[in-house]
């Protein structure tokens, strides 16, 4: 089915649905859930956990959990353990050990060296304020205006490291959202790999770790759609295979604001998982159960036999109350 529409929140053009996964289908499915411990699990994260988990399990695949605890200053102490406890209480079962990004700084630094050797990295002296003053609006804040691309301006010190982007449209085939096109150089610009505070950027860490963990299917919230071309560019630069993507609708409240951990959305209650899972199941457009599952075990058995990604609405965002 062909649909053409302009997404108001990004300049992406969404053209078609059900694009072929870009992975080698002979490779076993390996998916993941990658929460950031900036707050306890809320309904939006639960939706991402549920979609990624069921899609992996229905395919007979593996499902890994990675704690994205890169940003120590934003981390709330104790929250990582609460997230894992909540996942367990909801009945999610992950494969292997939880990988913590806080233990991976060496790997990220090595990858930056490789990219630097390939001539793709440059030091940048610009502050956010300077970029905001000079950069035109882009899909994710102001576009980097190229100030330090060729050399640091005289008398300025390097703050961050950036990856060079070149003009040209990158294509993402998304199993839910359809086909997306983004001209990275024009819509994002050269982007940060290591921040001014020394912390490795999410875009870099996620790609390095997805590659390290052999992830070939990514199911996550559509708020990360605009980041996907940056991640594909990095994967290509590192000669890593590009996974298949499925971006699930972002949960918004009745006023249209995103529910997120940082916006203090109510955490899901580990003591009452079943009604919350049923609500997430409905949110993802899945077929109603003929009668409500009596308990958690029954929910998982039935959900694993009926999950269908094709039923997920191809919307960037969806209101919780509109189900
Ligand atoms: N850690 C990110 C978040 O919680 C998700 C990263 C990803 O799924 O790629 O928003």
Q: How are the elements arranged and paired?
A:
Elements: E1 2-6, E2 13-16, E3 30-33, H1 43-58, E4 62-67, H2 79-89, E5 99-100, H3 105-117, E6 121-124, H4 128-134, E7 137-138, E8 141-142, E9 160-163, E10 169-174, E11 178-183, H5 184-187, E12 191-194, H6 202-212, E13 217-221, H7 228-237, E14 244-248, E15 250-252, H8 273-283, H9 296-306, E16 317-319
Parallel strand pairs: 3-4, 4-5, 13-14, 15-16
Antiparallel strand pairs: 1-2, 6-9, 7-8, 9-12, 10-11
Helix pairs in contact: 1-8, 1-9, 6-7
Bound molecules: glutamic acid (GLU).
Based on the model shown, name its key terms.
Rossmann fold, single chain, binds glutamic acid, elongated, three-stranded parallel beta sheet, alpha/beta, 16 strands, three-stranded antiparallel beta sheet, 323 residues, 20% strand
Note down, in words, how this protein is organized:
The chain is α/β, with parallel strands linked by helices and 323 residues long. It has one domain: 3-Layer(aba) Sandwich (Rossmann fold). Helix content is 29%, strand content 20%. It has helices at 43-58, 79-89, 105-117, 128-134, 184-187, 202-212, 228-237, 273-283, 296-306; strands at 2-6, 13-16, 30-33, 62-67, 99-100, 121-124, 137-138, 141-142, 160-163, 169-174, 178-183, 191-194, 217-221, 244-248, 250-252, 317-319. The protein has a three-stranded parallel β-sheet with strand order 3-4-5. The chain has a three-stranded antiparallel β-sheet with strand order 6-9-12. It has a two-stranded antiparallel sheet with strand order 1-2. β13, α7 (228-237) and β14 (244-248) form a beta-alpha-beta unit. α1 (43-58) crosses α8 and α1 crosses α9 (296-306). The two termini are 23 Å apart. Residues 1-25 have low confidence and may be disordered. Bound molecules: glutamic acid (GLU). Glutamic acid (GLU) binds next to loops.
């Amino acid at each position: 089915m062909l649909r053409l529409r302009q997404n108001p929140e990004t300049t992406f053009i969404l053209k078609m649905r059900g694009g072929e996964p870009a992975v080698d289908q002979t490779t076993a499915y390996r998916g993941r859930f990658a929460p950031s411990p900036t707050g306890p699990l809320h309904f939006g994260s639960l939706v991402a956990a549920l979609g990624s988990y069921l899609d992996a399990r229905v395919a007979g695949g593996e499902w890994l959990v990675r704690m994205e605890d890169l940003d120590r200053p934003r981390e709330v102490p104790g929250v990582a353990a609460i997230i894992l406890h909540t996942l367990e209480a909801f009945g999610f079962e992950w494969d292997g050990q939880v990988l913590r990004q806080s233990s991976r700084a060496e790997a990220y630094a090595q990858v930056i060296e490789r990219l630097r050797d390939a001539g793709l990295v440059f030091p940048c002296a610009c502050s956010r304020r300077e970029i905001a003053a000079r950069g035109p609006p882009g899909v994710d804040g102001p576009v980097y205006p190229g100030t330090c691309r060729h050399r640091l301006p005289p008398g300025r010190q390097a703050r961050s490291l950036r990856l060079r982007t070149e003009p040209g449209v990158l294509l993402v085939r998304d199993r839910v959202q359809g086909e997306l096109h983004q001209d990275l150089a024009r819509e994002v610009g050269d982007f940060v790999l290591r921040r001014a505070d020394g912390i490795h950027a999410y875009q870099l860490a996620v790609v390095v770790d997805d590659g390290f963990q052999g992830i070939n299917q990514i199911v996550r919230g559509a708020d990360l759609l605009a980041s996907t071309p940056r991640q594909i560019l990095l994967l290509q630069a590192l000669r890593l295979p590009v996974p298949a993507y499925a971006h699930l609708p972002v949960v918004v409240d009745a006023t249209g604001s995103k529910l997120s951990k940082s916006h203090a959305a109510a955490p899901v209650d580990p003591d009452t998982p079943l009604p919350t899972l049923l609500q997430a199941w409905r949110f993802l457009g899945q077929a109603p159960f003929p009668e409500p599952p009596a308990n958690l075990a029954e929910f998982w058995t039935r959900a694993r036999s009926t999950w269908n990604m094709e039923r997920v609405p191809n919307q960037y965002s969806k209101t919780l109350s509109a189900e």
